[in-house]
Amino acid sequence: MDKKNLTLGILFIVAAFATLVVGQRMSPPPPPPAAPVVAPADQPGADDAPNAPVTTLGPGPAPVNPAFAALSETRADVENTSLENEYVTVRLTDFGGAIQDVAFKKYSARQNDPEPFVFNQRHAAPLLAIADVKGLGQETRFKRISATDREVVYQAIFEDTLEVTRRYSLAAPDDANAEPYRIRHETRLRNIGQNTVSLPRLALELGTTSLVSANDTGLYLNVAAYDGDNKPEIIDRGEFEPGFLSRFGIGDATPRNIIDLPRPLVWAAVKNQFFASIYTPDEPGQSVAVRRVELPPLPGSTRTDIGLTAAARFDLNAIPPGGEIVHSGRLYVGPKEYSRLSRSEEFKHSEDKVMQFDRYFFNRIFLSGIVAPILNKLMVAIHSLVGNWGVAIVLMTLVLKFISLPFTLAASKSAKRMAKLSEPMKAIREKYKDNPRKQQEATMALFKEHKVNPAGGCIPILITIPLFVGFFSMLQGTAELRFQSFLWAHDLSAPDTVWRIPGLGFPLNIMPLLMGATMIIQMRLTPTPSTMEGPQATMMKIMPVIFTLFCYNFAAALALYSTVNGLFTIVQQVLVNKYSKDDPVGISPASIATRSGKALKNVTPKKK
Known about the structure:
This protein is α+β, with helices and mostly antiparallel strands. The chain has 13 helices and 24 strands. The protein has helices at about 5-20, 340, 360-365, 370-385, 390-405, 405-420, 420-430, 435-450, 460-475, 510-525, 535-550, 555-580, 590; strands spanning about 55, 80-85, 90-95, 100-110, 115-120, 130, 145, 150-160, 160-170, 180-190, 195-200, 200-210, 220-225, 235, 260-265, 265-270, 275-280, 285-295, 305-315, 325-335, 495-500, 505-510, 595, 600.
């Protein structure tokens, strides 16, 4: 590998990692919102009353602030009803006949605090509230007509024309195969008037997601829509802002108020780093509308919390007098646990894609869509045996190292033999310094004679990078690691900050420093040709520093994985250097100019 290729390769890796962290996809301008549809005479149900007039329920008024969806205020006269099991408390509200919020009993809001994390606690609308139709949304008070410990039913009459019944239920506790975080939902629209009723569409709110902590940058806060065939379409907060080129007068500099994704909708999700609401309708929808929500800063932060809210839209047929339409689906509100969402018997529409292991091109070229799920399952399986997530990561790392041991041993021995050829290679370069072709031929003959594979040292890198990238991808939404401590790290899903420099606030993170130290020691133990010099040698020396700075504020779990991997590699290299046979490298002058047993004539023209 020459200096130029090495430098380009390293720059590519650094640029690709940067893309992984801050890359945002550019998306086209949203299509205009669909206009209200009045039911034509040939729609289903029209034949029953061909001459009956049609009542069209149109959309509600335009928002006061079109740039952001308004926050919903808690009403003093609200009546809440709860559904509950071992994992969640689902609190419903009679305003909108919808789910006000969901508390997760297994996940606390703050570390060392018994209060549970509450999804949709600060929101633009209750979960599954009806949107886009004034008089049926969260401003309308529904009557609770029945309630048990497993099911709640609300009902409202709209203008003596439409009876709306909304039903919510949790699975029975004795159903071992049921998903405890999933809520069954049904909305029944019955025409009790004399006219055919036309609703342009039924839009259901999917909830509001926001930052989970003062350290959260919002990298994993987005809305996803899945059509059943392709990768989920992702909308990030940054896509509402004008494009980069707009700063130079190219393109529209106006922020986007709403982003509409018109596509067959198998499921849609609103999520942050660790939690998500995923709505899977029984019949596919037509689009998802996404808006931003401006929330107060989180405790310990002065940064405005910009969240996202979304609504799934479903086209409806006209309802003749006495007729009805039933919309139903299942709403998952819970942690992003891949082991849970990948259960095919419960989640039959690839809801596990909400984890987005292979979202970016960088993830895809290193097969994160395959590697990350394997690593997650391995880590969860080991944790079930040892009961500690930090220990599980350590053991998982060792298992992976043992699996790759034959390849890395072969590469280490090849690197050692390569280092012993330093002087002969230097002699070849000196002899053929004016004839690159002859220099290359003599070098390859030298490698062949001593059974050295010049690409052998790349094998450990080719194995390590996909594992590292896959582990990084897995950490994007592994709720299991949240608030899990190990050694001095109080939270494996966050940096292991033990101290901050007074006045500057710069954090002291121990684990990334240990990771960098192991990389430096590995470099010193690994035999390298003495001919490596100049920019190539300099780049190799500063790579541990660059990598440490790059990973400095990443999750402690990632640094723990890399540190253990580095320590194991150090021990392995020490043993290889100590116990591997020293192959004598007796290089005669004739062998330097030999290729396949034939002498190579030096045809370098003499200098005049």
